[in-house]
Structure formats: C-alpha cells, structure tokens
Amino acid sequence: MGKNFNYNYAFLFYDVGEKRVNKVFKVCKKYLSHFQKSVFRGEITPANIILLKKDLKKVINENEDFVCIIKLMNDNVYGEEVLGNKQNNTGEDLII
Amino acid sequence: MGKNFNYNYAFLFYDVGEKRVNKVFKVCKKYLSHFQKSVFRGEITPANIILLKKDLKKVINENEDFVCIIKLMNDNVYGEEVLGNKQNNTGEDLII
C-alpha cells in the first residue's frame, strides 16, 4: 500500500500498558501534537518518523503494547468529521 | 482541507463514556472493520459515512463523548507502521 509515497504527516494511536502510558505519551508529544486520548497527529518528516519509532521501541513492551502510525503525504489528503465535544477530550490534564 | 475529494475509506476513533461503548462499537462495526481498541477502519461510501454519523448521533452523548472520522480517498493514500503485538489488541473479546 503506497510504499513509495513521500509521507510528511502522520496519525498515531497507541494501546499500551498503564505503566508505560506516560513514557509513550512523552515520546509522541516530542514529534506530534496530541489530538485526542491516545491519538496524536501532525506534520512529521520521514527522518523523524524513523526517530519516533526508535524512541517508541525503547519504551514499549513489544509483547503487550501496540502502536500504529498512519502516514499520509500531507494534511490535504484527508477529510475530518468530528461528533461530540472535542474540547472535553484533549486528555492532556489526565497525564502528569 | 480537501473538502472536494471523493472519500471512500475511513479511520474512526472514539472516546465515549463506558455506558455507551457497546452501542458505539456496534454502530461502527456495522460500517467499518474493528482495527484496534477504540479504532475502526475500512472502505465506506460517502453515503454510508452520512448514515454512520446519523447512527452515531443517536447513541452518543454529544456533551461527553467524542468521535472522529478521518476520511481518505482510498487505502492507497496511506502507509502504515505497526509496533508491538497487533494480535493481542483486537479488543473484540473485551466487548460482549
């Protein structure tokens, strides 16, 4: 699937053990913007995607955790529909 | 952002109150494939995106819940990177 595109934008979502949520959150925050609960997104260079993955591998437990990065060419290739109250759900306040 | 594209593929992620998770899950499952925890994805026609939103609006609490649909033209416009154990995390067994 589209392996030859030059991706410069990404969505990331994770499902990781509670003990590691904080660390994973911090790594993601370094490269992307927090979007919602366990979802990040933002502009990111292919080189930084590699660094992001490297940093994530240091903090996740590969047997128990799951992280998925959806890479897009830019933020013009998708459309977004939001239902409900976005403001209530940045989740930033839940992470210390 | 790309409002004029013909979108035929979508990612959906939700953050909804525990009481409504089951209902939201069932609605999403009707239109998309369960991908991971609170994330669905799959081919979907523009007409069905409208129906999906209509069905979701019936079951969510718009003040407390949040659902985001990311629409893409097709599954060729994104690349995917997965870290960790995907098999452990379909989450289907968690929903009765």
UniProtKB/TrEMBL annotation, chains A, B:
GO MF assignments: hydrolase activity; metal ion binding; RNA endonuclease activity
Cofactor list: Mg(2+)
Family annotation (Pfam families): CRISPR_Cas2
GO biological process terms, semicolon-separated: defense response to virus; maintenance of CRISPR repeat elements
Cited CDD domains: Cas2_I_II_III
Top EC class of this enzyme: hydrolase
The EC number(s) this enzyme carries: 3.1.-.-
SUPFAM superfamilies: TTP0101/SSO1404-like
Residues bound to Mg(2+): D15
Alphabetized UniProt keyword annotations: Antiviral defense, Endonuclease, Hydrolase, Magnesium, Metal-binding, Nuclease
Family: Belongs to the CRISPR-associated endoribonuclease Cas2 protein family.
Subunit structure: Homodimer, forms a heterotetramer with a Cas1 homodimer.
Main function: CRISPR (clustered regularly interspaced short palindromic repeat), is an adaptive immune system that provides protection against mobile genetic elements (viruses, transposable elements and conjugative plasmids). CRISPR clusters contain sequences complementary to antecedent mobile elements and target invading nucleic acids. CRISPR clusters are transcribed and processed into CRISPR RNA (crRNA). Functions as a ssRNA-specific endoribonuclease. Involved in the integration of spacer DNA into the CRISPR cassette.
Protein name: CRISPR-associated endoribonuclease Cas2
